[in-house]
Amino acid sequence: MAERSAETDADRRTGTTAATPAPEPTAPPRRSGAPLVGNTLTYVRQGIDFLDTLQEHGDVVSYRALGEEFVAVFDPDIVESVLVGRNDEFSKGDFETAFGELIAPDGVAFSEGETWRRQRQLLQSEFTPAQVQSYAETMVDETDALAADWRDGEVVELRETLSTFTLGVLTEALFDLDLDNERAGVVREATLALADIADPTTFALHSVLPSWLPSPSGRRYERAMDDLNELIERLVDERRDADDRDDLLSTLARAEYPDGERMAPNVVRDQLVTFLFAGHETTATSLTYACWLLAGHPDVRERLDAELERELGDSDPTFLDLPSLDVTEAIVNEAMRLYPPITILYREPHEALTLGGYRIPEDATLQLSAYGIHRDERWWSDPETFDPERWLADRDRPEYAYFPFGGGPRHCLGMRFAMTELQLALATLAQRVEFERVTESLDPTMSVTLDPGEVAVRVRKR
Ligand code: HEM
């Protein structure tokens, strides 16, 4: 997603720039809750459905839950304004930072200001089109190996299988590292333990109970992170001596900015954890949803097969084929529209301000709801239907009616990597297998990513 100049169309449409004399701001509509706990219990019990009901109150809705004052945003123009034009007026905020503290507080996803800028500059050299192109063959090879491993008629649980797969692609491509089962298991366990602790129920409990009170998920998480830290230390040590390599792990092991300043060891650790966590579960859930949706829509599958036959014949897809694989891309986009892995983006204003005519207090946590906006019938006809065709037709909708990778200066650093992997993996899998649904319906829950739960499919070799 392109970065933009300070004042955007969205700012002008929402009347949020200093240049436009705005009418007197009012408080946003409020969803009331129980005394003291606010909407915590409903939030915890209903998760994503609760957030859905907020939209009934308007495009900007305030409520209290989990000990926080939230303002949910369902207007694409306001989202654009917050992420792009007025990005400097916000930080990720306390709610997101509390989550970051659990994982990698000094990594690029949670740092702020000048520290963030320097980190981002250093790291984005690994994600240029040329770099991502150099990872493409690994992506296809790993997918080929995955499909080769499946027997005809085998029932496969996609979410778990694809998590291991995307972790393999990530470590191989970015770190030039073939993690053996034991090492991969350490990273997987840390991811699962995080999902456990970040479950809304547990998170809510943490906000009510004193933090020193040990919980089973808390202890599991601590153990998993100790093991992960040990693993990362070993990897960095192993790589530090190999100074002729230019992969991300080597860049971090050298721990040096272009001006010669050194990155502190805890920051190196945090960057690695950031990539391990941000880079594999997100892509795995997207691919899971895409494969499952495809399994339920033979008409879409036919269009995909025709495209792959026409554009690739018997050859494997390459990076250079991607611009001609429109249906493949449309399927990936449509899967992420219906099931954005990151359902909500969080921001907190540095000081009280006005957004879309509403007064937003300084301590409020903005929730930019990708899930809600992606299913809003003002921008998407028949929004609950999986219809990749909509991406192939002319479209006229606000740019931020779709923002699975965020936007503005802090948009997903791995977006190009993820889109390349998703399209290449989907095309490679489709050339080799068909899926039949065993799990007939999904009931996703909000965790670190939008968790589909168990997704079983039967594999038919082609
Ligand atoms: C389908 C897959 C993915 C999705 C949907 C996704 C989504 C996102 C979103 C929404 C953000 C912005 C969060 C915010 O503004 O608050 C983000 C940031 C980030 N993502 Fe991704 N991501 C994906 C894959 C990846 C991959 C593969 C990598 C790395 C290899 C990655 C690395 C990052 C990093 C480092 C950031 C923080 C950027 C910054 O703050 O400057 N992501 N991602």
Automatic annotation (TrEMBL):
The keyword Oxidoreductase applies. Belongs to the cytochrome P450 family. This is Cytochrome P450. PROSITE patterns: CYTOCHROME_P450. Residues 218-245 form a coiled coil. GO terms for molecular function: heme binding; iron ion binding; monooxygenase activity; oxidoreductase activity, acting on paired donors, with incorporation or reduction of molecular oxygen. InterPro entries: Cyt_P450, Cyt_P450_CS, Cyt_P450_E_grp-I, Cyt_P450_sf, Cytochrome_P450_monoxygenase. Keywords: Coiled coil, Heme, Iron, Metal-binding, Monooxygenase, Oxidoreductase. The keyword Electron transport does not apply. Pfam families: p450. It comes from the Archaea. Residues 1-14 have a biased composition (Basic and acidic residues). Residues 1-37 are annotated as: Disordered.
